[in-house]
Every structure is written in C-alpha cells, then in structure tokens.
C-alpha cells in the first residue's frame, strides 16, 4: 500500500502558506519528514491524521481517498501527536483498554489480548498498573506508540517524538519504532537530523511549506558527496568564515568550533574533505546550494 500526496496547498487565515504544492510518494517502511520549525511538517501531519483540511490537492492511501473519506482512513490510522495535553490518572492498562473500546474492539477478551501485547511491545508491561500521569517523558512516548497501534493501523504518524527524551529513552523509542516500520507506513516528522539518519531509508526535506528533497537517504547524501569540507577554527573567526564560505554548520568539538562548509572545489586554506552527513544535506538544501 502506498500513500500518495499530490499538490497540497494550505494557506492559514493569517496569510501563512504552510503547504506549497507538496507532493510525496511514501511506501512501506519508516519515512522521515525533516524540516526546521515552521516548515509545515505539523500541518502536513495533522492533514494526514484527518484533523484538518487543505485548500487544494489529493491524498490517497491505497484505495482510500483520505480527504473525502476520513472515516475510512481513521480505521487504518495510528497517530502519535507531539503532546497529548492531558495525562489521566488512570493506569496504562486501563487507558489502553478504554482506547481500544473507543476504536471499536467490542470483545473484552480481544481487548485484553491486544492491550497485553501492546504493553509488552513497548516495554511497559512492568509499569502497566501505574498511572500514565506519573510516567516519565520516555514512558509517555512509548505509551503513545502503544495507543497509536491499537487496531493494527496501516499508516502511523509520529510528530516530533524525541524532544525531551534522554539518550536511553530515545534508543528504546527508536527500537520500537523501527520494529513497527517493517510492515506498515510510518511517517516520522522531526527537526532532528539524527532521528532520520538512524531510522529512515526514505525521507523528505521541507522548508517554508515546500518539499526541497524527497528520496532515499543514500541519494540525499550523494547530492553533497565530495563537496563538504571541514576545519577546526577559533570562535572569533567564525564570522570571517561565514563571509568567505558557504558555512553549513558549526559544532563545538572539545570546546572548539568545527565548521562544515559547502564547496564544489577544494577551498584550500587548511580545509580537509569531510565525510558527508545528513545534516550537511539538510543545510545545503535549506541554503539552496544543491
Ligand atoms: P512545523 O511543524 O514544521 O514547525 P507548522 O506546520 O506547525 O510547521 O507551521 C507552518 C507555518 O504555519 C508556520 O509559519 C506556523 O506559524 C503557521 N501555522 C501553523 N498553524 C497555524 C494556525 N493554526 N494558524 C495560523 N498559522 C499557523
């Protein structure tokens, strides 16, 4: 089953064009939607989750016309929003059971089986009697995944999932996501390049409502191969380098900035060729260098 997004347009009443002719083809597996804040990711995610409309365009998931048959889409959708807002004092087990009932799983035995399986899958079995309101950030996100998987969705939408998670929690979250992504379409929206690098074979880069790149992560890297150069500089020199070169990023390594620049040819002046990474691609695309 494929998700086909064609020529989506969305302008908010304040005049912001949040989606500008967005088209994407997304197949089975983990798909990363990468973009800075304000790129239009959440607008797209909420549209896919049938929570808001666009002005123009079409979306189909297999035979389902998403924008015109929201009920059909909701039957096969799992959604993990940025924030749930309310975390009830109910236990994880009870809350999942309740959500399964809302999803139409009428048999108590079926619900018990599904809830147990989900709790095991997201490593919350031991904590199943605890109130969700007392969960840590990581546990809440794992609970979020569990609820999004009720009813065997074909499409799961995950919006900015790792903000505020410590490295251990993030790893656990990643592992669960990548397991899920083997059989269905999972779209992961994030501004964190590392999330996409670690999890996704296919990706898109968005900025200001437009899709700047869509394809495999390998192809994305090819776009800048041999054109990324690195050098450790002094903090005070950064503005000079910004003037002279196309600086993509500056990161502190042991207290000193390591800059990555984009250049078709060898820039000389102590720069050495660097192994390209997705962050380079991201910034090169945002700066419209590639
Ligand atoms: P992202 O998720 O990539 O940060 P969003 O889809 O949230 O991007 O926002 C895209 C643009 O649309 C931003 O400029 C944002 O301020 C604007 N925007 C988002 N939601 C609304 C809204 N409900 N009303 C008006 N403008 C909005």
Brief synopsis:
The chain is of the alpha/beta class. It has helices at residues 41-48, 70-75, 92-102, 108-121, 137-148, 167-180, 193-199, 217-222, 238-244, 278-286; strands spanning 3-11, 17-26, 29-34, 56-61, 64-65, 77-80, 155-159, 185-190, 202-207, 210-216, 228-232, 246-253, 256-262, 272-273. It folds into two domains: 3-221, P-loop containing nucleotide triphosphate hydrolases (Rossmann fold), CATH 3.40.50; 224-287.
What report would you give on this structure?
This protein has 290 residues and is α/β, with parallel strands linked by helices. The protein has 2 domains: 3-221, 3-Layer(aba) Sandwich (Rossmann fold); 224-287. It has 10 helices and 14 strands. It has helices at 41-48, 70-75, 92-102, 108-121, 137-148, 167-180, 193-199, 217-222, 238-244, 278-286, and strands at 3-11, 17-26, 29-34, 56-61, 64-65, 77-80, 155-159, 185-190, 202-207, 210-216, 228-232, 246-253, 256-262, 272-273. The strands form 3 sheets. The chain has a 6-stranded mixed sheet with strand order 6-7-8-3-9-10, sandwiched between helices. The chain has a 4-stranded antiparallel sheet with strand order 2-1-4-5. Helix 3 (92-102) packs across helix 4. The structure holds adenosine-5'-diphosphate (ADP). The site of adenosine-5'-diphosphate has 12 residues, from helix 1. InterPro entries: AAA+_ATPase, ABC_transporter-like_ATP-bd, ABC_transporter-like_CS, P-loop_NTPase.
């Amino acid at each position: 089953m494929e998700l086909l997004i064609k020529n989506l347009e969305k302008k908010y009443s304040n005049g912001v064009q949040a989606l500008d002719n967005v088209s994407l083809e997304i197949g089975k597996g983990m798909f990363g939607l990468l973009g800075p804040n304000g790129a239009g990711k959440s607008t797209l995610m909420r549209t896919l989750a049938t929570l808001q409309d666009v002005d123009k365009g079409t979306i189909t998931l297999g035979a389902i016309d998403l924008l015109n048959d929201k009920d059909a889409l909701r039957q096969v959708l799992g959604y993990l929003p940025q924030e749930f807002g309310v975390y009830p004092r109910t236990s994880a087990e009870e809350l999942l059971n309740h959500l399964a009932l809302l999803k139409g799983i009428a048999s108590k035995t079926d619900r018990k089986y599904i809830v147990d399986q989900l709790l095991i899958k997201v490593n919350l079995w031991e904590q199943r009697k605890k109130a969700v309101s007392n969960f840590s950030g990581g546990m809440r996100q794992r609970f979020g995944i569990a609820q999004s998987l009720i009813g065997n969705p074909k499409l799961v939408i995950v919006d900015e999932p790792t903000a505020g998670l410590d490295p251990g929690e993030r790893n656990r979250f990643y592992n669960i996501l990548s397991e899920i992504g083997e059989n269905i379409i999972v779209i992961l929206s994030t501004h964190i390049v590392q999330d996409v690098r670690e999890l996704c074979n296919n990706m898109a880069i968005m900025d200001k409502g437009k899709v700047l790149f869509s394809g495999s992560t390998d192809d994305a890297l090819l776009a800048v191969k041999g054109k990324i150069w690195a050098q450790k500089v002094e903090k005070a020199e950064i503005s000079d380098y910004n003037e002279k070169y196309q600086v993509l990023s500056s990161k502190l390594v042991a207290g000193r900035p390591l800059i990555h620049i984009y250049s078709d040819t060898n820039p000389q002046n102590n720069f050495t060729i660097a192994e390209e990474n997705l962050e380079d691609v991201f910034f090169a695309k945002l700066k419209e260098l590639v």
